[in-house]
Each structure stands twice: as C-alpha cells, then as structure tokens.
Amino acid sequence: xxxxxxxxxxxxxxxxxxxxxxxxxxxxxxxxxxxxxxxxxxxxxxxxxxxxxxxxxxxxxxxxxxxxxxxxxxxxxxxxxxxxxxxxxxxxxxxxxxxxxxxxxxx
Length: 107
What we know:
By secondary structure, this protein is mainly alpha-helical. The chain contains 4 helices and 3 strands. The chain has a 3-stranded antiparallel beta sheet. Strand 2 (54-57) and strand 3 form a beta hairpin. It is rod-shaped and about 95 Å long.
C-alpha cells in the first residue's frame, strides 16, 4: 500500500461528517503510525494538493469533490440553444426576401 493510499484511508476514516475543516496533518500522522516516515507523508499530502485530489484548509486536509462533469453538461446545453437561435434568424431573413421580390413583381 502506497503512502498516498494510507493518507486517503486516514482522511476517510478520521473525517467528521459536516466538518468544514477536514482532518489535521497530525491526526493523519498518528493514524499511519510507523508504516511511513513523516517526510513521505508530508510529500504525499503536498503532491495530492497540487493534483487537486485534496483540499488544504490551514493544516487540515479534505478529499476534493469532483464537479467537472456538471459544468460540461451546462456547456453542451448552451451550444444547442445558440444553434437554435441561428437557424431561426436565417428563416426570418429568407422570408423577408421573398416578400420584397413578390412586392416588386406585382407593381
């Protein structure tokens, strides 16, 4: 088991539901115990924060929420509505051209 796995296991086990802060660095060290060194734990925490897998709040850490798929669906909806607007605009311009040509012929 890697140090990263140990850190994530510690955070999942020690976290309190509804807590905004997360799990402290010292609590993570105490949970892991002699399975790894302090330097490796700190390096693992640092890298996980850089990769946005963990969120750091002071000296505490939380597992990051994955919110990217929700943004992708709203972007897809916006592009479809924009495409609909352009097609309706084209229809009105062609209808206006037909009216002007018909008016010229009748006079």
